Amino acid sequence: MRFVTVVLSIVMLGSTSGASARVTPTQSRRKAPTFVLSDANGSPVRLSDYKGKVVVLDFWATWCTGCKVEIPWFMEFQDKYKSQGLATIGVAMDDEGWQKVRPYVGEHPFNYPIVAGDAATLATRFSVVGLPMTLLIDRDGRIAESHAGMIDKNGWEQEVREVLKERPR
User: What is the number of alpha carbons within 13 Å of residue 148 lying toward its C-beta?
Assistant: First the structure.
């Protein structure tokens, strides 16, 4: 699985134009699948607990170069927009799980929760085709944007601001 993900990640990084996709119109958005995953302390993190917030759901891995570039941007957005209802969740997709992720998180503190994901389950449910993969989920729990490969920082921030302005239905 890791080899396929690495290959897909490289292909996607090479094809990223830097242009940002548009936010999906509200009437066309699909409900985000739910999950319950554990953080480093073993505490459950439920996506459903974030209803009412705009969620940046970042699928990443410790070996993913593009992921490591994006993480500081997501931390910046978390600080900047938390008071407006933004919540970021990092889903580490390393095959070794917490054995690999825990030391990385210890050396690189995050300002948002990190959970260890199960690639076999989450890749299908969230259409993760490579890393990095980032979803923007609206306050109603629907996917407003899904981006495979590295995001364009400024374009993504615009999309975050756009979805933050929306009111729940």
Answer: 15
pLDDT at 101: 97
> What is the Rg, in whole angstroms, of the alpha carbon atoms belonging to the chain?
15
> Each residue of 29-59: pLDDT tens digit?
999 999 999 999 999 999 999 999 999 999 9
SS3 category, 55:
strand
* Domains held by the chain: number: 1
Token pair, residue 74, equals 């997501």
Task: Encode pLDDT of 65-75 as tens digits.
Answer: 999 999 999 99
Tokens of 50: 């974030």
- 15 pLDDT higher than 50: no
DSSP letter for 122, please: H
The parent domain of residue 49 ranges over 2-165
Token output for 19: 């242009």
The CATH number linked to 116 is: 3.40.30.10
**Residues 71/107, Cβ–Cβ less than 8 Å:** no
d(CA 167, CA 72): 27
The β-bridge partners of 87 are 55
d(CA 33, CA 142): 9
